[in-house]
Fold each of these.
Amino acid sequence: MHEIDPLGKPEYTYRQVAKAVAARIEIGKITHRLPAERDLAAEFGVSYQTLRHSMKLLRDCGLVITRQGRGTFVAPAAARTCPTTPHLPPLTCPGLNQGDD
């Protein structure tokens, strides 16, 4: 499982969190509704805003869908495509794998 280490890894923390959540989705640990954002932030030991940035990245990569007032859900397998590179699987979406901004 991915460890979040904001000081020991050169990768931005929000990307570390996004990759950890994406890995949980890919292995089937999260299959439908994601835990509340505040709960995930506490679990990963990051700020709420960092977690929100991670969720935006996952939405942009097509892995999750957020419904206001209802929560964040794993996107159906057929809908999981990266908008910028639809021929690639979501975990290879450039947003998750590009270098630091």
Amino acid sequence: MRLFAKGDRVMQPRYGPGTIISTDEQYTVVEFDNHGQRRFITTMVTLEATKEPAPARAAAKRRKPAAKKQAETPTVS
């Protein structure tokens, strides 16, 4: 069993290439290029090191500010 460091590129047979997000004796979290983030039990996961570079990620989009609602004034009849 080999512990990988945060940021290492790895290959997993089912999910393909990914990047180690966090790892310890219990869990290893990998952000896969095509399958998102997955959490594995460290002693049971099969990972091998790879030299394949991470794909370029699109920049996060900012939300537009919410439009202010005009308060309705009650009309007295």
